[in-house]
């Protein structure tokens, strides 16, 4: 079957539909980040509402469960939707993943019950539903964007989709700060009532507002045609693929028919067969290992910035007594600052460099610079800890996010969408992503339990020593991540998806 259509897709200039696809696909990542990373300030608010007798601190096991249940749902969603995306088509499931995200988002805000246990159990259930939708969105968004893009700027478009994660983190911080500031002024705390009952409405409102960007793009998702590569290569319907591309790209049927013919793979070996493992097993292992190692580091850091900086937060360091809204505002503002000066610039740098430098080089360099920074702040951590200002430490610590986003955090999302055949593409992306989320659970829950173990009766020197060990360990994981990058068999910069098969 000779297909000139792919040549036209690979050489098509960037046009309106490509940027529309970035927006539609990116809103899923935006919603993902909004909910996954809003939980840290929300936990602070819940601590003041439901754990007044426990020094306003949510119990470690509860906080760990809230983190793990969403990440577990994400891993399950990646596996299920990844496989179904190859069996039933990308577009048919795209709207379903978004509907699950919207249902989970609204459900989190409507968490029911008259007791603390009921409310938190309900919240955990809906975070799991939300996680399944988020997980489903990962392989579908990455694959749809990769199959629409041309080979010259494919990496930039995929990086642009993933960069919405950074804007989602910033949006969740801004919304949390705004809600806390507004509620704090309308319902000021009283000496005999430091946590107004309206605080229970505030955290629900913050979570439910996360559904807005998803709702804005739902119609566009439902109207998107199936990708031409899936229709032509998996469904074997070249005519329909050509007609679909005529609808969305600025080219006529005659233009699509022009160009050099490309011969797609006719192999029929099944998933995980000997032939599959021989051709793609090493790349699947490399994608999974790199994503696993990256997420251990990335999620432990991003979710628990307030634990890293606990000396400088009034609620954590007991510098002064603060209200529920003030404590939550402090954590959210810290996240916003780091997102603005480190995270988002890293995503933007990746967009500009990914198609110039190459995926593997950016990933390896990102891992090694992350390791250097972690060693730089971990080895002399006691020195930073004794300083009265956190600015030098905060700048260095922020660089870990910059090099992660202009490095493995972006490339682990891109590479699985480029390396595998069309009929296995979302499946393999889902497997790699699910392995990554296993690392996220280890990193987030492990870091949380470790930080809480330091909150007992240890002296400050002991706490600093344990944090030093944690930071050095994260640096060591980054070194292993750089080594794992060498497992990949090829660079995908400037190549067509069919060549990579």
TrEMBL record:
Keyword match Transmembrane helix: yes
Ranges annotated as spanning the membrane: 21-42, 62-81, 93-113, 125-144, 156-179, 201-220, 284-304, 332-353, 360-381, 393-415, 427-449, 469-488
GO annotation, biological process: phosphate ion transport
Cellular location(s): Membrane
Superkingdom per UniProt: Eukaryota
Membrane topology: Multi-pass membrane protein
A molecular-function term among this protein's GO annotations: symporter activity
The entry's keywords: Membrane, Phosphate transport, Symport, Transmembrane, Transmembrane helix, Transport
One Pfam family cited in the UniProt record for this chain: Sugar_tr
GO cellular component annotations of the record: membrane
Keyword Transcription appears in the UniProt entry: no
Domain Major facilitator superfamily (MFS) profile: 21-493
Alphabetized PANTHER family for the sequence: SOLUTE CARRIER FAMILY 22 MEMBER
UniProt family annotation: Belongs to the major facilitator superfamily. Phosphate:H(+) symporter (TC 2.A.1.9) family.
Name by which UniProt lists this protein: Major facilitator superfamily (MFS) profile domain-containing protein
């Amino acid at each position: 079957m000779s297909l000139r259509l792919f040549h036209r897709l690979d050489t098509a200039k960037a046009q309106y539909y490509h940027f529309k696809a970035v927006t539609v696909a990116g809103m899923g990542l935006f919603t993902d980040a909004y909910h996954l990373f809003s939980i840290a300030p929300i936990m602070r608010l819940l601590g003041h509402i439901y754990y007044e007798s426990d020094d306003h601190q949510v119990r470690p096991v509860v906080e760990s469960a809230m983190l793990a249940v969403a990440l577990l749902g994400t891993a399950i969603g990646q596996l299920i939707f990844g496989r179904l995306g190859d069996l039933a088509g990308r577009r048919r499931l795209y709207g379903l993943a978004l509907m699950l995200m919207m249902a989970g988002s609204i459900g989190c805000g409507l968490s029911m019950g008259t007791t603390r246990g009921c409310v938190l159990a309900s919240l955990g259930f809906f975070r799991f539903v939300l996680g399944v939708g988020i997980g489903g969105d990962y392989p579908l968004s990455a694959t749809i964007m990769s199959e629409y893009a041309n080979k010259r700027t494919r990496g930039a478009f995929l990086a642009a989709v993933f960069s919405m994660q950074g804007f989602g983190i910033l949006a969740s911080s801004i919304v949390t700060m705004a809600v806390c500031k507004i509620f704090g002024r309308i319902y000021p705390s009283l000496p005999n009532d430091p946590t107004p009952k309206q605080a229970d409405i505030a955290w629900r409102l913050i979570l439910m507002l996360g559904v807005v960007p998803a709702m804005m793009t739902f119609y566009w998702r439902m109207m998107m045609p199936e990708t031409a590569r899936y229709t032509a290569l998996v469904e074997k319907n070249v005519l329909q693929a050509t007609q679909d591309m005529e609808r969305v790209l600025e080219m006529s049927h005659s233009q699509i028919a022009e160009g050099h013919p490309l011969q797609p793979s006719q192999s029929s070996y099944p998933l995980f067969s000997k032939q599959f493992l021989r051709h793609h097993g090493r790349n699947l292992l490399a994608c999974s290992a790199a994503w696993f190692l990256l997420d251990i580091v990335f999620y432990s850091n991003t979710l628990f910035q307030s634990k890293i900086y606990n000396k400088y937060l009034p609620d954590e360091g007991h510098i002064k007594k603060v209200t529920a809204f003030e404590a939550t505002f402090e954590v959210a503002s810290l996240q916003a600052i780091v997102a603005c000066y480190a995270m988002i610039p890293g995503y933007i740098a990746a967009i500009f460099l990914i198609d110039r430098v190459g995926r593997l080089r950016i990933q390896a360099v990102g891992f090694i610079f992350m390791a250097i920074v972690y060693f730089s702040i971990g080895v002399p951590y006691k020195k930073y800890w004794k300083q009265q200002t956190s600015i030098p430490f905060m700048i260095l610590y922020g660089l870990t996010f910059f090099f992660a986003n202009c490095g493995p955090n972006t490339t682990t999302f891109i590479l699985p969408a480029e390396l595998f055949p069309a009929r296995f593409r979302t499946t393999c992306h889902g497997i790699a992503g699910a392995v990554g989320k296993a690392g996220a659970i280890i990193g987030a829950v492990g870091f949380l339990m470790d930080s809480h173990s330091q909150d007992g009766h240890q002296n400050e020197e002991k706490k600093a020593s344990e944090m030093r060990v944690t930071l050095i360990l994260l640096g060591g994981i980054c070194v292993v991540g750089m080594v794992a990058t060498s497992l990949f068999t090829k660079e995908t910069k400037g190549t067509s998806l069919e060549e990579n098969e």
